[in-house]
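[audit] Reproducing an earlier prediction to check determinism. Same input, same settings, fresh worker. If the tokens differ from the archived copy the diff job will pick it up downstream; this log only records the rerun itself.
[audit] input (109 residues):
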Amino acid sequence: MGRTWIKFRSFVALAVVLTLLGCERDPYLRDIEAVAPYFRSSGAPVVFHGGPLEGGTAVLGPGEAAFWVKDGEVYVVNDAARKVAPELEQAPDTIKYDQAFVDAAHAGE
């Protein structure tokens, strides 16, 4: 598992960097990087979107998995995220997966 895990983590890190390439120092990159390890890759690029939401960062991953990151802590926002990372806590009640969340995640682009 060790060598495969390192390859996987390297691939995820590369996918995140390539996705954000062209952006000058994305302020949400650290929060997106905190979410990326929860996704297993089939070899295809993994795309994330992140932007400001209520003092934290709204992060959308593959399959509309919604996460909220605040102060380095990652929280799930919807069922898609819960399936990917069942060990994470639910985001506060004020953070909901709605159009405002989606808009916030895309605002960082």
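[audit] rerun output stored. Observation attached for the diff report: The longest strand covers residues 49-53.
[audit] end
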